[in-house]
Structures are given as C-alpha cells and as structure tokens.
Amino acid sequence: MRALGELSETRYWIYLLLLPSLVMILLVIAYPTLYGMAISFREMRLTRPGLGGWVGFKHYAAMWSDPVFWIALKNTVVWVTAAVVLELALGLLAATALNRDLPGTKVFAVLILLPYFLPNVVAGHMWALLLDPRLGVINDLLVRAGILQTYKAWFADPNTALAATVLVEAWHGFPFFALLLLAGLKSIPEDLYKAAAVDGAGVSAQLRLITLPMLKTVIAAAVILRVIGLVNSPDLLLILTGGGPGDATQVLSLYAFQTAYKEFNFGYASALSVVMFVILMIFAAAYIRLSRITKGEGDD
Amino acid sequence: MIESKRRRRVIANIATYFVLATLSMFCIGPMIWMFLTSLKYEADIVTQTMQYIPRRVTFDNYVAIWTQSGFPRLIANSLVVTFLTVTICVATGTLAAYAFSRFAFRGRTQLMLGYLVVRMFPAVMMIIPLYVVMRGVGLVDSRFGLALAYTSFLLPLFVWMLKGFFDSAPKELESAARIDGSTRLGAMVRIVMPLARNGLVASSVFIAIAAWNEFLFALMLTTGQGSRTWPVGLQLMVGEFQLPWGVLAAGGILSILPVIVLFAIVQRTMVQGLTAGAIKG
Fold first, then answer.
1. Which terminus of chain A has fewer CB atoms gathered within 10 Å of its CB, N or C?
2. Is the ipTM above a cut-off of 0.95?
3. Does residue A47 belong to any structural domain of this protein?
4. C-alpha to C-alpha distance for A294 and A300, rounded to whole angstroms
5. Total of domains in chain A
6. Contact A25 B279 (CB under 8 A)
7. Nearest CA to A42 among A29, A52, A30?
8. How does it sit in the membrane (chain B) (predicted)?
9. Which of B16, B21, B92 has the CB atom closest to A21's CB atom?
C-alpha cells in the first residue's frame, strides 16, 4: 500500500490507472473487431472445418446479388426511421409534460422511464401476448371499440408486422428520449422564457424560437445514439418475428446474426456486419456535420 | 386579463396530467396485464370472453416455472454472470474514469472518444470473432467468458458514466488532503471515492441491469445448462415446450423483479448520470 502510495506520486501513475481498462478493451474489443474484419475476407463455416482460406471480396460480391440483403437494408431504414421518429415525438411530449413539475411528477417520471430498463425478452413476449391473434387484449379492445371487425394476427400479416414491431420498439425506447430531452429542457434558463413573454411571444413562438433551438444538441445526440442502438441490435425482432413472415421484418443486424447463428456461415455474417458498420459510420459523420451546419458555428 | 391567464394555466395543468397519465398507462399497462395473466388459471387465459379482472387467482404459474423448468439454475447463472461483469467493470473502469476526470494528459480526448466510438460497433460484428476466440481458449459456455464478452460494451459505458460523477465531486477537498500530506492514491481512495459513492453505485447498477437483461451474446456464447442465463433459457422454453402463457408471464415477472427493485432504489442518481454523460458526449 505504501509503495503504491509512493508510486502514485510519480508520472507513471496516470498510465497505471489507465492500464487495466485499456488491456480489457484491447482484449475484448480491438482484437475481436480486427479479427472480425479479417473473417469477412475469409471462408469460415463451423459446419465445414476444412475451409479457412482467404477469398478476398467474395462475400461482398455475393451480398451485392443477394436479394435478402437489399430487402434487409430497406427494412432497416424503414424500421429505424419509423421507430426513431415515433420515439422522438413521444419523448418530446413526455419531457415537456414532466418539465412542468406539477405535484406528482416524480411518480409519473418513474413509471414512464421503467420500460427502458426492461429486458427485450420480457418486453417481446409481453407484447406478443397483448397482440396475440387469439387471446390478445389489444385485439379485444379494438373489437369492442368497433375499430376492428375480428381479431388480427398483427405479427403474421406482412402488411402489419413491421408496424407492430415498431410499436413495441417505441414503447421500449421512447423513455430514453424522454430522459435526455427532459435534461435538455431543464438546462434552458427560465429567464429566456420570461423575457420572451415580456416581449409578447406566445406559446408556439416560445417553442419555435427558444425550446427547439436550445434542444438541438440534445436531440442530435439522442437521435444518433438511438439510431446506432437500433441498427445494431436485432434482439427484439429476433424474439417477436424472427424476421418473418417471409422477409417482411428482416433487418441487417438480424440477417447477419441468423447467418452466423443458424447457418454458421461466419465469413458472410462478418461481411454483413462490416457493411452495417460502414453505413453507420457514414450516417453518423453526415448527421453530425449536418446538425453542426444548422446550429451555426463556434458552439460545440 | 389575470382571470383568463389563470384559466389558461388550469387548462394547461389538466392537459399535462392527461398526457402524463396516458403515457404512464402506455408504459406500465402491458406490465400490469402480464402480472394479471401470471395470476390466472390457463383456462381463464385461453377463453372466449376476455377476463379483464381475474375471477379467481392462483400462484400455480409461479410454482410451475420455479419447480418444473430449471429456472432457478438459469437465475443463478445470471446472478453469477452479472456479478462478474460488475466486478470487472468496477475494478478496471473506476481507475480509468478517475484518470479521465482528474488528469490532463496527451491523447486524453482521443482515448475518451475511442471509448465512445466502440458503441458504434455492431453487436454481431463483436459476437462472431468473440465466439471464435473464446472457443479457441475454452471460454465458450462459461460464465466467466460471457462476463468478459459483456465487458466489451459495458466497460466503456461505465467509464463514461462514472467520469461524469467524478467530475461533479469538488476538487478542493482533494487538494486540501494533498496539502496535508496525503498521496494521490490516498486522496483518491479516502476523499474522492466516498464523495462519488452514489455515482459509483448508480453506474454499477446500470451495468448490472444491462448484464442481467442481455440476450444476444448469451444466446450465441452459451450452449448448455451450465452457463445459460435466464433470457436465453426463457426464450428457448417458449420455443421448445410451447410454454403456457401464464407460466411464461410468471417467469417474466420473476425475472424483472430485481430490475424494478434496483431501478426504484437508485433511479434518481442513475438518471442524473445517464443524462450528464450523454449530453456532454
């Protein structure tokens, strides 16, 4: 302990503090990532151990002519866009209401945040039960209200499957937006609104001229984190639909996972995830640049 | 004028409560329904006319999931994996978060950004090579191996979150201790850690919940009873035995119970840490 204390006075201390986590990260992230990229240029199937050679861009070329890849790409864009827009809208609504700080707000805040912390497995099956074609309570409510004639198999109908999964995802993910946007709203000085009110600005003018511009950074950060999260995680779709019916809810991450998990075709699955990663990088760079431009210069 | 202003405020308050109540119902309604389902007899679930309030209540579903399906084993595995993950993150991440928060050094910004970029890596892109590497060293189907895999996405998150808490612990006390002859290590352990205790607990709980809930890595990296965690076990039960709805609901309720309890306890600090990290990043 004494020796460590003395060591902490030397200039090596900082590196000693960083070393353990850095070793961990290199071990479980950097090395596997590079290795994964290498796999995408190789033939690797666990079912056929003899293979293992380098095949160059074979997998990438195969992807180009793979119809499922293009369907999955299209579905990914639709699914992520719909979910993020819905989550942002609900999150903004929740944050605005919570920010008024009326009595009892704390209880509502806890209830509204709860879904975000629930496991995908439970969330998935819970909604499968709610939307079940035979005993789903949502079907029952809709029929009673006269909106539906008969019970509907939401996840089995290619026309509604993707929308139904977006609903589940929105339920699971909108608290994340509520959380970040509420923090953003709280950081806007009250004086701004008072000054605007004195100048005669109404509610909508205040929203347009103060709230939204001040929230821009937070919204940008929340959107980008959520898009990354949604593109990368196939969990919910894997549990709800498995990509079906047909390929109606097949997205890139799920396609890559199933290629690895079911077919053990690691080479092709790696190539798929590398493409996904590149698309995400391009999106992130473009999005950050765009939100910088509209924000004006100087501030960060 | 004042009268109409007050009226407008009352209307706004009513609208606010309406929005909050509706959203809360949307959020916890499904959970309440799952809870009610878990208390029903199967005959009352699969019925012609929907029972909104159960006419009779039973705990059979809870007994069934606990005794008839290796559920306790799954829960035990999950507990071990969660504990190992949190231990690794706390042991290595706390030091890094402290370093990032208190020292200026070359490459600090780049390194911190690096910790963030890691989040962009697709899970699948990590899972495949991790599986191959771990199979090579015999860590597939091991609880320690799974915890190591979880570290790949939870450690960076933990470091970012905890750094925020360290940032908000006042530096003056630390300086005072240093002037009184305490070493850097002494100041860190005796002054900064206690100050950031709530943050440390909240960050750990966040990691713990994430590890407890994780599904995809566990599905790929565990193959047998020995290390399988509850999300994978529950999912496989649904597929293999056509698990009755009531039993499935009971399993769901049991497995989210720890999450809800933990969340309720540290919710305020955790929310604070989550937002601070995300907004600065």
1. C
2. no
3. no
4. 12
5. 1
6. no
7. A52
8. Multi-pass membrane protein
9. B92
